[in-house]
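testing teh design pipeline on a random one, pls ignore if ur not involved
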């Protein structure tokens, strides 16, 4: 298993555990938050601790596609939404409209209890 594959295996765990900074993936695709547990599991497979691949949250974000919710949140928080307005009335109206549409779309996303988001 390479680092990209390990990042894909770990991706759902970062969504489920939003405060976790790092996960450790073993060659059999088991995911651990505590490194020593991953090392011990790797040993039980007959592998040494070097068979464990550690994935940091920011590394995982590079390989994972953003969710629709994340795209909308980023759009709402973007600099153009806050300070992008200028003297062009049509451009300002377009920014306001896009921002309002993003807020409405974000509000329409159902909240799933226990989904970790």
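output:
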């Amino acid at each position: 298993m390479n680092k990209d594959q390990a990042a894909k295996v770990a991706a759902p765990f970062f969504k489920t555990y939003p405060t976790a900074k790092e996960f450790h993936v073993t060659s059999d695709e088991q995911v651990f938050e505590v490194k020593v547990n991953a090392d011990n599991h790797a040993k039980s497979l007959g592998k040494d601790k070097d068979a464990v691949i550690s994935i940091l949250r920011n590394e995982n974000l590079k390989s994972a596609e953003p969710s629709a919710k994340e795209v909308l949140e980023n759009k709402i928080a973007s600099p153009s939404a806050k300070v992008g307005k200028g003297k062009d009335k049509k451009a300002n109206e377009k920014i306001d409209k896009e921002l309002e549409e993003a807020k409405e779309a974000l509000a329409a996303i159902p909240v799933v209890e226990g989904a970790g988001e």
